[in-house]
Amino acid sequence: MIKTRGYAAHSGDQPLQPFHFERRAPGAGDVQIDILYCGVCHSDLHTVRNEWNNTLYPSVPGHEIVGRVSAVGDQVDRLKVGDIVGVGCMVDSCQQCSSCAEGLEQYCDNGFVGTYNGHAFGGSENTYGGYSDNIVVRQEFVLHIRHTDNLAAVAPLLCAGITTYSPLRHWSVGPGQKVGVVGLGGLGHMGVKLARAMGAHVVLITTSPDKRDDALRLGAQEVIVSRDEDQMAAAAGTLDFILNTVAAPHDLNALLSLLKRDGTMTLVGAPAEPHPSPEVFQLIFKRRKLAGSLIGGIAETQEMLDFCAEHDIVSDIEMIPIQEINEAYERMLKGDVRYRFVIDMASLKDD
């Protein structure tokens, strides 16, 4: 077993605090990773506070992991000690169902194993995530990082990056398309960067007029303030695709009206409470589609990382020590971060 230090929540109403635990020693197909950086995702907060009513305690969050390989098993042939690698939202899946066979492990018919808050196959133990100094993962779920610098800002790509990249790729976003991105937070700012790099004309849709300048800096060519009825009316029926990243319940009807005939709005935000149901007429009169998308498979996540390295794309981040994680959660709830917190895991040595 490997002694591990991290931060954990022991109940939904308690702050994260130092936690010592053990991980398995690397098996034949496993990779042991010393964690350098871990992004802070809104899902971490939902889980820690049991807002989805499925939390296993103690809970060690973190699924945006960048680290250095420190040991490999005898059968590992894709990675070596010293490699810079990433781990995202999954650490295992059944590898036998049709979804896994197609490289869509996130839709595993038997349920993928989450990097944290997940039962391992064949056991009842709780998986512990990246708010820790090391992790052991089977090699099939470890990703190559080809960025050569700014590794802390690469970490959020492992969730925020793939969560926005996958639907953009699936719905073939590219040149000649006008694409709306709803919300300019951790997910939204990545959606803007990626859609622009894919060649689309990008329109940010936001409730906050003060986000206009930042949206343009990040790559948007237009900004629509959704509380402005005149702006929304002028944009009606103009968008080919909408990537909706907002993680709070909101009215979808006004956004659907922005789509052209046969346009699609895809939801990637995961609210704690359901969205109000949209009007059927918003869909049937223009043959519009309302869809959802969940992260991405391992092959697609590697594709995303390579795409981002090629286009010099990383997340806009604020680095914090692990000791400030509880304050970061409160700031995240207020939208007081541009645009993703990343934990410097070297700070664990100060506890």
Description:
By secondary structure, the protein is an alpha/beta fold. It folds into two domains: about 190 residues, Alpha-Beta Complex (Quinone Oxidoreductase, Chain A, domain 1), CATH 3.90.180.10; about 130 residues, NAD(P)-binding Rossmann-like Domain (Rossmann fold, 3-Layer(aba) Sandwich). The chain has eleven helices and 17 strands. The strands form four sheets. Strands 3, 4, 5, 8, 9, 16 and 17 form a seven-stranded mixed sheet that branches. A six-stranded parallel sheet has the order 12-11-10-13-14-15, with helices on both faces. A two-stranded antiparallel sheet has the order 1-2. Helix 8 links the parallel strand 13 and strand 14. The relative contact order is 0.16.
In percent, how helical is the residue content?
10-25%
What does the largest sheet look like? 7 strands, mixed
Report the order of strands and helices. Answer: EEEHEEEHEEEHHEHEHEHEHEHEHEHE
Question: Number of helix segments?
Answer: 11
Q: Which descriptor suits the 3D outline?
A: globular
Uncertain segments? none
**The CATH topology of the largest domain, please?**
Quinone Oxidoreductase, Chain A, domain 1
- Helix- and strand-based class? alpha/beta
Q: CATH superfamily assignment of the largest domain?
A: Medium-chain alcohol dehydrogenases, catalytic domain
Assembly state here? single chain
The tally of structural domains comes to 2
Report the radius of gyration as a whole number of Å: 20 Å
CATH class of the largest domain: Alpha Beta
Could you say what the CATH architecture of the largest domain is? Alpha-Beta Complex
